[in-house]
Amino acid sequence: MAEVETTRDGDVMTITLNRPDVLNAFDRAMQDGFRAALKEAADPEVRAVVLTGAGRGFCVGQDLTEFQEGAGDIGERLRSTYNRNVLSLRSLEKPVIGAVNGPAAGAGLALAAACDIRIAADSAVFVPAFITIGLVPDTGASYLLARLLGYGRAFEWLASGKQLTAADAHAWGFVSEVVEAGKLAERAGLVAGELGSLPTRAIGMTKRLLDRAGSGTLEEQLELEAQLQAAAAGSEDFAEGIAAFLEKRDPRFTGR
Ligand code: T3D
To answer: Tens of pLDDT along 58-104?
Structure first.
C-alpha cells in the first residue's frame, strides 16, 4: 500500500497520507509520495484538493523514530523535504481543504495550516509538538500560524505546545467547522465540490493576493490587484460570469 494515496472524484482530488499505525508520521518515503501527489494535484483538470489522513490520525509530523540514530542535518532535511512540499502545497492555484480527521501535530499541524480551509472531525486534536521535544516551529508553522491567529495566540500556542480540541480550534478560528467524525469525508467532499465548481483561476489568484497581503504597502497590493484583475478579466470564466448574469441564469464555470 502506497504511503500517500490519491483518488479523484470528478475534478476533486483527495490526497490521503497513509501510515495509519503511526498516525501518518512522515518518513522519507511518505515525503516522496507527498511530493508526487502535489505534482499530480497541479494538473489543471483538478479544481479542488482535499488533504486528509488514513486511520485515526491526520498527520503527526516527523517520524521521531528516525531520530534514534541522531538528528543528522535537520536544516538540510527540512530544505529538501518539508519546505519543498509545503511550498508546493501553498502554490496550488486551486482551493485546498484540510479534512483533519484526527491528531495534527508538528509538521502535520503546519500542513493543516497551509490548507485554505480546515474542517475538523470532532475527534481531531491540534498539537504544535515542536517545543515539547525542544524544537522550534518548522514547515512554515511560525509564518502560517502568526498570519492565521495573530502573534499573541500563535506565541501562546507554539511556545506552550498545548493541545487544542477541535472545539478549541474552532473557537480560535483555526478551523472553519467541526463535524462528526463519520461525516467528515462527505462534508469535505461537498465543500471541495462547491469550491471546485467556481472560477478556479480567480480562486488561485485570490490565494496569491491573500498570501501577499500584509507584507507590502497598500500601493503595492493595489498594483498586484490591478495586475491579477486584468488576468482574471481575460479568463473564459469571467466571460461566462457576465453572460450568465445578463441572461439571468446560473453560470457554468470551467476553470479556464
Ligand atoms: O528533521 C526533521 O525532520 C525535523 C522536523 C520536525 C517536524 C516535526 O514534525 S517535530 C514534531 C514531531 N511530532 C511529535 O512530536 C508528535 C508526537 N506524538 C504525540 O505527541 C502523540 O502521538 C499525539 C498527541 C499527537 C497523539 O496522541 P495519541 O495518544 O492519540 O496517540 P499515540 O498513542 O501517542 O500514538 C499512536 C501511535 O503513533 C503510537 O505508536 P504505538 O505505541 O501504537 O506503537 C505512537 O508512538 C505513534 N506516533 C505518534 N506520533 C509519532 C509516532 N511515531 C513516530 N513519530 C511520531 N511523530
So the answer is: 999 999 999 888 888 999 999 999 999 999 999 999 999 999 999 99
Is the minimum distance from the CB of 63 to ligand 1 under 6 angstroms?
yes
HSE at residue 47, side-chain half, CA atoms within 13 A, is: 21
Residues 6+ apart with CB under 8 A from 220: 212
Strands of 12-17's sheet in order across: 4-9, 12-17, 48-53, 96-100, 117-121, 177-179
Cell of 126: 491540534
Residue 198 Cβ < 6 Å to ligand 1? no
Phi then psi for residue 120, to 5 deg, are -115, 145
Q: Report DSSP state, residue 154.
A: H
Three-point CA angle 126, 128, 129, nearest 5°: 110
> What are the pLDDT digits (tens) for 25-70?
999 999 999 999 999 999 999 999 999 999 999 999 999 999 888 8
pTM of the model: 0.97
Answer for the pair 200, 94: CB distance below 8 angstroms, yes or no.
yes
Evaluate the CA torsion angle 61, 147, 100, 194 in order and state its sign.
Answer: negative
Distance from Cα 101 to the centre of ligand 1, integer Å? 15
